[in-house]
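Re: your question from the hallway

Yes, I did run it. Sequences:
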Amino acid sequence: MSDVTLRDVRKSFGAVEIIKGVDLDIKSGEFVVFVGPSGCGKSTLLRMVAGLETISSGELEIGGERMNEVDPSQRGIAMVFQSYALYPHMTVRENMGFALRFAKLSKEEIRKQVDEAARILELEPLMDRKPKALSGGQRQRVAIGRAIVRHPKVFLFDEPLSNLDAELRVHMRIEIAKLHRNLGATIVYVTHDQVEAMTLADKIVVLRSGIVEQVGAPLELYDNPANLFVAGFIGSPKMNFLKGEIDGGSAGRADVRLPDFGGAVVPVALKGDAPAAGTPVTLGIRPSQFADDGDAALPVTVDMMEHLGAETLIYARSAASDLVTIASPTRPNIQIGDTLTARFPSSGALLFDANGKRIY
Amino acid sequence: MTSYGLKQRFSSVVVYAFLGVMAFLSIFPFLWMVIGATNTTSDIIKGKMSFGESLLLNATTFFTQVNAPLIFWNSAKITIIATVLTLLISSLAGYGFEIFASRFREKLYTLMLLTLMIPFAALMIPLFMLMGKLGLINTHIAVVLPTVASAFIIFYFRQSTKAFPHELRDAARVDGLKEWQIFFLIYMPVMRSTYAAAFIIVFMTVWNSYLWPLVVLQSNDTKTITLVISSLGSAYYPDYGAVMIGTVLATIPTLFVFFAMQRQFVEGMLGSVK
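Structure:
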């Protein structure tokens, strides 16, 4: 049992509340990613789970036991830090076995467990080196190895790939995903990189200013964001937000007029009734949803283009200078300054009210 | 040559001339001391600046007049104990000031730094009275005690601790270490260059200290090398050759410590953690 449960967990530094009441259920074996912009409180929340920050109020349970006042080493967690936090005066072997020494394991047992972790992470040739003689990726593997040997109930990762270059980051991301599959452990992972979140997570927790904005599977968050913030944060390139107003509609449908795009009207499917005519709304459309056979049309002028090989990103503007990003899977024969009609299926558009909340 | 080139050359000449004078002023006392150790008192007074033939004679006089093993032992004992205790206590304080936040931390720290402005002469009498009440006059403990909580070394350790990665402390806590274990098993080895630099500073200060030992050490069997050399120099007919031999011998331990730890000293002054 390695469930992690947070109930109305709060954290204040003096008068400033950083974490404003988080409720969360993490099931045993789940890979959960805390994602959000800098300063949203994701690392603080992770440190509270680790026991490195005290919990001001609320309840934290790991494996069904209350952990609020329990020492970090007794919580059954292991943590991998952004800077790796390897002890510079110890060899790789000593670093990996250090926690076990304090758990009072025999030398033989420590050696066995360290060797096993080294084998899993292919660290055998590096065991007698000091951290300064290792590359960034190797240090990261040692940091993970140090966590593995403790056989924790929960692994905590605090932006572990931020210090690596782009290529190594992709490689390590795959390694961590494999590790999760092989160990079947519960993992709580903090990142500000939504690509890492999308590729690794079973469940993503989107945080903003100490509040959980939405919790869900990566594709659920991508397809059905609860608000503008989540819609904008999940997905790369970012979702386009077009200002509009309700022009009319009926049960199950709202007609949205886009004044900045020559008054184009887009019919958007809804579960409930359409808001009253004249209500200001925001229409959300992902760059990848633009397609030649779309029923909605936006007149735009090409401002900038990025040729990425597999796709082309077209940055275009409306007559009122509203920016629209279009991701084309082809290599369109267009030039900067060209005027074109960007089409998308209205069924794929999302609608948000003036407060940024999704209108379903 | 362009006027820019001339200007550059002129400024180089000025810089090197200044550095040359400074180097001479630094080296001259050492040179004079070493040359003096080989000359007779009358040659030294005359200002002879070449090596003489009286080295053995001076050494014999010095070792006859002075119980050298005892005074070196006194100096070494005081210096090593004071240095180890100062490093331990002051680094603990510096680490504590930086790592543990409290409402009074900065006020206390400022107050401590203010003590650096009090001249030792002003502290000497109350300290002497305190040592008298504790019954420690004429003991080596009286020399060691006032040095062990050094405001300057605490300041130095606090500044160096700013570069100590906090994540190492977090990792150690997750690994199950208690605060004192983090200090001894993680902080101390990681900050060894800082300790080396502080070791040299404290070692030299204590080894060369004169005024306070002069006040509290009253019998000959407790005196340190600096006191004994000074008393040789202030005799009615001082033998400067013997004084120079004593000074040369007294310089050797500090030179040894400095050269043995020179690399760490430079690293420590630049910052321990890379």
